[in-house]
Amino acid sequence: QVQLVESGGGLVQAGGSLRLSCAVSGRTGSNYVMGWFRQAPGKEREFVSHIVWSGGATNYADSVKGRFAISRDYAKNTVYLQMNNLKPEDTAVYYCAGRMFFQSDYNYWGQGTQVTVSS
Questions:
Q1: pLDDT of 75-105, one tens digit each?
Q2: Which residues pair with 106 in a beta bridge?
Q3: How far is residue 3's CA from residue 20's CA, in Å, rounded to a whole number?
Q4: Are 69 and 60 in contact (CB under 8 A)?
Q5: Residue 112 has what DSSP assignment?
Q6: Which of 19, 36, 75, 89 is most exposed, with the fewest beta carbons within 10 Å of its own?
Q7: Side-chain half-sphere CA neighbours of 89 within 13 A
């Protein structure tokens, strides 16, 4: 079983920055992928970014490329999402999720953290 707990959300003005954290506990292993997703009001949940726990390969949605950066800290068992140059359209609940490398679906999810960007 894997537990994921997000933190770091809040209210920020457009152009500002926030860093989200996802504390990971439980059995994961090196072949694990950690992802960030978001869901805005009235919209479907969408992929934001992912990182492979071992090796650190990353991927980003086009809408956040060049502005967001995902990283992980082995010692703290934590994944981060650094969000810069935030835009009002980034407003959403952000979720951390995990899956095995060979799976396509994420099977572990955090409770979400609200990010609100004011114009």
A1: 999 999 999 999 999 999 999 999 998 988 9
A2: none
A3: 16
A4: no
A5: -
A6: 75
A7: 4
**Tens digits of residue pLDDT in 8-20:** 999 999 999 999 9
Across 6-28, b (16+ Cβ under 10 Å) vs e yields bebbeebeeeeebebbbebeeeb
Place of tokens 């009001």: 41
Q: How far apart are CA 30 and CA 71, in angstroms?
A: 15
List, in order, residues 6 or more apart from 31 with CB less than 8 Å away.
53, 54, 100, 101, 102
Token pair listed for 32:
């694990």
SS3 88: helix
Query: 65: phi > 0 → left, psi -120 to 50 → alpha, else beta; which?
Result: beta
